[in-house]
Automatic annotation (TrEMBL):
TPR repeats lie at residues 11-44, 45-78, 79-112, 113-146, 147-180, 214-247, 248-281, 282-315, 316-349, 350-383, 384-417, 418-451, 485-518, 519-552, 590-623. Keywords: Repeat, TPR repeat. This is Tetratricopeptide repeat protein. It comes from Brachyspira aalborgi. It comes from the Bacteria.
Length: 680
């Protein structure tokens, strides 16, 4: 200071004063002094070099660049001029210019590790990771004891996707200096290398060293999430959002962790914050949509995922998730359109074809479903769901053998899923393989005794092999689980078949009470009354069945009237029955003509009766009752009586009795008692 007072025109006095200020960390004072030096001697490169260095230290990078450009102009052979120029460009965010300057520095002095280190930094920031690696390998060769050489080498490997090499470098960095930054990058690299436990250990160490870094907690949240430790991920994510509530990715990762932990409402709340902070990030909308989907809010899921596909229509996962949401919202056409797009973007992912097949299946397009699911099993033959849905689609398409083949594969891959066995049993049933159906359905109810549909199918399978008591038992189990008309229909059907008409009537009565608009239940109730010789009740039931829309009950109604000796109504019903059959160009049964003749004969309409009997014999020459009635019509005043009736129901009684003889009456009685108790 004294020197410049004594001789203020000597640039060296100002230079050394500036140099002293620089060394003392007084960079603004250094700048002021060195500005005077360059004013007095603008041709001395040292003045410009130290002025540039002072600007750099003072954070004035553009001014540093301007000064150092003058230094390299005056002395282009001094590597330090190029080094600090490159350093200043780096700090100013001009990475390509930094690279150019630092390449000159390493050319002039290839033995200074700092030149290589900062060249590596600049390549890294410029996204040239391989070049960064090459430079930093030279730096660690020249100075293997510098932690930053190893840290930046590790970071460069990480960004270049060489995670194991990154880990090796960063382990060396933490060995040299176990600080938070080295642990942080080591944790990130372990995470990217799918070594999640090691990532957690490293990132926990970083948060312990610097507990107020939201970035460290954010990365720890990701590592915990990837390791399936969702509660710990949530705790870390909450810490990250507390420290930095304005960073959308903190809320995204917190939301993902909540979603994976099954806390869908909390996930939604977090992800709504993420989309508020960054509405242009597709992943915020994607995960919001997924969380809504998991929460059963399918329309909200659709709205969110539509935004995701708008932001990135080339991400197949957006279309896949959108398709699933449409599917569960029962918008199958929209689901199909979305999933077709997913398969176009990624035709090699079996999951896209599986979901597309499911959508076609639910839309009733079974052949298209089959085509899609064949692709799914081709791509992933080890996923039982692909085989299950293929089998289900074959079943719905009426291709029962193909369904069986597919579902056998499903149960082989996953023998513990009751639905595989249920649909295998159903397919066997539809294919007429009733014993195989029973075996499969028994396995289904063993795995899930609370699925009433399996009991229902088992009931009909037992019925078709003549195991009526077992069939009734299965339908009772169904009714216990789901008190529905169809179960009681099955119970009644079996009781009717073993001549337990009173119990059949009770069961069918319950069925029509539960479902009064089902004509089949009224028809079967009427037949049971008929077989129990309660003809008036039978008439009421058949009339109800006809009223609902079952024209086939007209024949049974006519027979009931006949047994009531209400011949006028019997004739009317037979004629309506005959007209209906003629309108469909169908064949009229020999029994109908015979019984029509009986009714006519009992009203003295002999010629009409004779014609009816003749028609009966013509249609079935082996109908002995009709032949006897025809032969005897001229010898009886009334022509016939009810002993000459041949009923489609009555004619089966003898056959039913033969079956019933094979069923233990005591067992039937026991089942009857159970049903009576159950119906109370």
């Amino acid at each position: 200071m004294k020197a410049v007072e004594l001789n203020p025109d000597d640039y060296l006095n100002w230079f050394w004063l500036g140099h002293s200020y620089y060394k003392n960390g007084q960079y603004q004072e250094a700048i002021n002094s060195l500005l005077k030096a360059v004013e007095l001697n603008p041709d001395n490169y040292s003045n410009w070099y130290w002025l540039g260095s002072s600007y750099y230290k003072n954070g004035q990078y553009q001014e540093a660049i301007n000064s150092l450009l003058k230094a390299v102009e005056l002395n282009p052979d001094d590597y330090l001029n190029w080094f600090w120029l490159g350093h200043s460009y780096y700090k100013n965010g001009q990475y390509q210019e930094a690279i150019n300057s630092l390449l000159k520095a390493v050319e002039l002095n290839p033995d200074d590790y700092s030149n290589w280190q900062w060249l590596g930094h600049s390549y890294y920031k410029n996204g040239q990771y391989q070049e960064a690696i090459n430079s930093l390998l030279k730096a660690v060769e020249l100075n293997p004891d510098n932690e930053f050489n190893w840290q930046w080498l590790g970071r460069s490997y990480n960004q270049n996707g060489q995670y194991q090499e990154a880990i090796n470098s960063l382990l060396k960095a933490v060995e040299l200096n176990s600080n938070d930054a080295n642990y942080y990058w080591l944790g990130r690299s372990y995470n990217d290398n799918e070594q999640y436990k090691e990532a957690i250990n490293s990132l926990v160490k970083a948060t312990q060293l610097v507990p107020d870094s939201p970035e460290y907690w954010y990365r720890l949240c990701i590592a915990y999430k990837n390791n399936g430790q969702y509660q710990e991920a949530i705790n870390s994510g909450l810490k990250a959002t507390q420290l930095n509530p304005d960073y959308a990715d903190n809320w995204l990762e917190l939301g993902c962790s909540y979603c994976n932990n099954g806390q869908y409402q909390e996930a939604i709340n977090s992800l709504l914050k993420a989309v508020e902070l960054n509405p242009d990030d597709e992943f915020n909308w994607q995960w919001l949509g997924v969380s809504y989907y998991k929460n059963g809010q399918y329309q909200e899921a659709i709205n969110s995922l539509l935004k995701a596909v708008e932001l990135n229509p080339d991400d197949e996962l957006n279309w896949y998730c959108l398709g699933r949401s449409y599917n569960d919202n029962e918008q199958y056409k929209e689901a199909i359109n979305s999933l077709v797009k997913a398969t176009q973007l990624n035709p090699d992912y079996a999951g896209n074809w599986l979901e597309l097949g499911c959508s076609y299946n639910r839309n009733g397009q079974y052949q298209e479903a089959i085509n899609s699911l064949l692709k799914a099993v081709e791509l992933n033959p080890d996923d039982y769901l692909n085989w299950f849905w293929l089998g289900h689609s074959y079943n719905q398409n009426g291709q029962y053998q193909e369904a069986i083949n597919s579902l056998l594969k499903a149960v082989e891959l996953n023998p513990n899923d009751y639905l595989n066995w249920h649909w295998l049993g159903t397919s066997y049933y539809e294919n007429g393989q009733y014993q195989e159906a029973i075996n499969s359905l028994l396995k289904a109810v063993e795995l899930n005794p609370n699925n009433f549909e399996s009991w229902h199918s088992l009931g009909w399978a037992y019925c078709n092999v003549g195991e009526y008591v077992a069939s009734i038992g299965a339908f009772i189990e169904e009714a216990k689980l789901n008190y529905n008309a169809n179960a009681f229909y099955g119970i009644g059907y079996n009781f009717k078949y073993v001549n337990q008409y009173k119990e059949a009537i009770d069961a069918f009565t319950t069925a029509v009470e539960l479902e009064p608009d089902n004509w089949l239940y009224w028809d079967e109730l009427g037949k049971s009354y008929y077989l129990n010789e309660q003809y008036e009740e039978a008439v009421e039931c058949f009339e109800k069945s006809i009223e609902i829309g079952n024209f086939n009950s007209k024949y049974d109604l006519a027979n009931a009237y006949l047994f009531l000796e209400d011949y006028d109504n019997a004739i009317d019903s037979y004629e309506k029955c005959i007209d209906d059959i003629n309108s469909y160009d169908d064949k009229i049964s020999s029994y109908i003509w015979n019984n029509y003749g009986v009714a006519l004969a009992n009203l003295g309409r002999t010629e009409e009766a004779r014609n009816a009997y003749a028609n009966a014999v013509r249609i079935d020459p082996d109908n002995e009752i009709a032949r006897d009635n025809l032969n005897n019509i001229g010898y009886s005043r009334r022509g016939s009586n009810n002993s000459g009736i041949v009923s489609g129901i009555s004619s089966t009684i003898d056959a039913v009795n033969e079956v019933y003889k094979k069923v233990d009456p005591e067992v039937v009685k026991g089942v009857v008692d159970i049903v009576k108790y159950f119906l109370k």
